[in-house]
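Regression test case RT-17, inverse folding.

Input:
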């Protein structure tokens, strides 16, 4: 099963805990692919980055593939912090959902 989680707006210290909770909740027992749609994120702070790393670690333990759909802001922040190699990034939701991609 594929699960798509759409995240709009800012992911900062205020919203970071809710973001982390939503990410972990999306890792249900029957999910094989988790797509995190961050195309509409206009700020990604350290709390959001930490939550992404945590959910990627949990997904790795469970054998779940995670793909992050990035707009300009999210991609810039992820790459600026050196985490670009840590995640599978996609430019569009269609590319992230397509089998064997991105």
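Golden output:
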């Amino acid at each position: 099963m594929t699960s798509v989680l759409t995240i709009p707006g800012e992911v900062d210290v205020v919203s970071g805990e809710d973001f982390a909770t939503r990410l972990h909740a999306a890792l249900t027992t029957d999910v094989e692919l988790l797509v995190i749609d961050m195309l509409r994120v206009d700020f990604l702070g350290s709390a959001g980055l930490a939550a992404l790393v945590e959910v990627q670690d949990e997904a790795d333990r469970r054998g779940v593939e995670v793909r992050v759909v990035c707009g300009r802001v999210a991609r810039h922040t992820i790459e600026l912090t050196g985490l670009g190699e840590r995640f599978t990034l996609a430019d569009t939701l269609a590319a992230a959902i397509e089998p064997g991609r991105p």
